[in-house]
Amino acid sequence: MSNKSPYSPGTGTYGEVITQPRIFTFGQPPNEFVLESGQRLGPIDIVYETYGTLNADRSNAILIVHALTMDHHAAGKNAPADKAPGWWDDLIGPGKPFDTNRFYMICSNVLGGCRGTTGPTSLNPTTGKPFGMDFPVYTIKDMVRVQRELIRHLGIDHLLLVAGGSMGGMQVLEWGVTFPEMMDGLMPIATSGRMTAQNIAFNEIMRQTIMLDPAWNRGDYYPGTGPAAGLSIARMLGMVTYRSDELFTARFGRRMTNHYPEAYYNFENRFEIESYLHYQGEKLVERFDANTYILLCKAMDLHDIGRGHGGYEAALASIQAQTYFIGVDSDWLYPPLYMVEMAEIMKKAKGQAEYWELKSPHGHDAFLIEFEKMRPVVASYVQELARKRGL
Amino acid sequence: MSNKSPYSPGTGTYGEVITQPRIFTFGQPPNEFVLESGQRLGPIDIVYETYGTLNADRSNAILIVHALTMDHHAAGKNAPADKAPGWWDDLIGPGKPFDTNRFYMICSNVLGGCRGTTGPTSLNPTTGKPFGMDFPVYTIKDMVRVQRELIRHLGIDHLLLVAGGSMGGMQVLEWGVTFPEMMDGLMPIATSGRMTAQNIAFNEIMRQTIMLDPAWNRGDYYPGTGPAAGLSIARMLGMVTYRSDELFTARFGRRMTNHYPEAYYNFENRFEIESYLHYQGEKLVERFDANTYILLCKAMDLHDIGRGHGGYEAALASIQAQTYFIGVDSDWLYPPLYMVEMAEIMKKAKGQAEYWELKSPHGHDAFLIEFEKMRPVVASYVQELARKRGL
Question: Where is each AB hydrolase-1 domain found (chains A, B) (predicted)?
């Protein structure tokens, strides 16, 4: 059974369902949203999609939170001609782990995003021009607090589960410490409770690379595409950190695009790994904004669940939800050891934590790839939460 | 005993000895040096230093080969005012593992370098201007073949040992497969027999970053300093790969340079790890040339001891020297597993190989830092070689 195999006909799949993003707007002046920094921002648009139906007692909602370059479009297609469905379509749909026959799934583009939610590409109401780098510094906690507004707007005051990987996992954990009574379960995947110095280092190098591109122009490049070359190189670095040495060796080895011996010493002759990274870089540029990338990376750098919660251990001890950590053995960007550590701190504090390790050569990105391995595990955890909630 | 402690007075230390780089020139037209690619290059200057005295039967010579941004100045000072001695001074000197009372140490700046040996900053005899990016693509094997010319010039046809780390270790291995009968010992440290796809990926990202800087100007920036910002960012990335997550966490953690709470959300407020990397980047720019960096990285990418030797395993099997591999447990750029693998392939082929693991949190760069741990091990191996040679 391949990752892309069709699901049994008749049950339907979100892969063929047309989903419609919606917008919720809040924080109209003078009632702007107050960021963690104290800065005021508003109005804020938040773009989101939902899959499935909210039940009568509003107890079956699951919030999915996305990673750095993903968005609110987690499942289905927005138009029949879309080449691919949403980024977690393999997990979301009728009969899938996030079963849309039973659960009401919500996914929104994060604060500071570039897919419709207010961010650096949005118009700054005080200037009438896009914010660019005047967009305020925000945090993972701000993303979560904005999602809280959306949930309230949807008439929901309790979530069955919050789940996501990477930057999504950071939001999951921040949900757990900021609104500890609001959910039954948390599923942080391939993530950490606080960015390490090495994590910050990679982000700073990516930011500097974007800002080195003259087309960045201090963030003032709209309506142009901006620093395409810089963003592309940043993405190349990101991709290396999202995969593994083992995977690259297996997939590309030392093969060159032009493998004639006489081309070996040609400076322009790329190794296949180089071609692959250039392709990935160019692909991101088509769909992502550079200032947004810079500030999202900054938000990640500021990620530390201990801040405002008495430190890292106290924050973890304050989590009330049943937490299911998923680490990836080959993930060297957010090494499993930190997830194991978090689960152990929680257990010592009498919290409900479990850790499961996804065995995969794919590195950090395995949570977007290894659906066959994840499905039974995710399904069983979601069903356990549902059973406990009487769903 | 600290790494920087003075040695016993009276024995002298290279830290206080004034060493004088010398130049050997060869490959005068029409007898240019023929690169592996078939391109001709000449004349070639090779800058080198020697420490100690060549014995009567010319049997006590040890060749030290350097890493990416190092040079021929491995020990002593070139002037009394020099702040620090050469890069391996802690290992080279009277009574040290590379004992200059007993051995004749040689270290040269590699082909393509920027410290005096012919490279991109040298004048192209056909144009009268610096080569820049017109400098031909060369390889690790070319570096080694140029060193062979120097050794011949010094009247030496056998080396007791060739030793070096990182790109130096690549040269060590290339020496072993290109001139298998020319040495008693090889000491490759924190290196590999062929660059992996991930290694190449990091190099390509560094090259692209330098080339993104408008001051690079397709390599035509002399006599200016050129793409300082791009080279600095490349070095920042290099430094991350040379150290470890563990080290950065211990040394910098999540501390910010301005640690007042109100500065936390300031985009310009750097984490200490960011400051450190920027400092390292700026420091490299003062002493290194960008085109040289680009082409040295390309030479590394082409590194594969199997090329021209019937493949990786056959190449290792052809090594005749007693080989002492040193890996660093926290080195994720050139993971120890590849060094273990090389030692095992050699042993299966009845070669003389040993592997020793340096335990250190310092990552790849440990071979430039952990001198206390390395000294006894290196000394004992060198003494064994000397004893066998009757020195």
Answer: 61-368
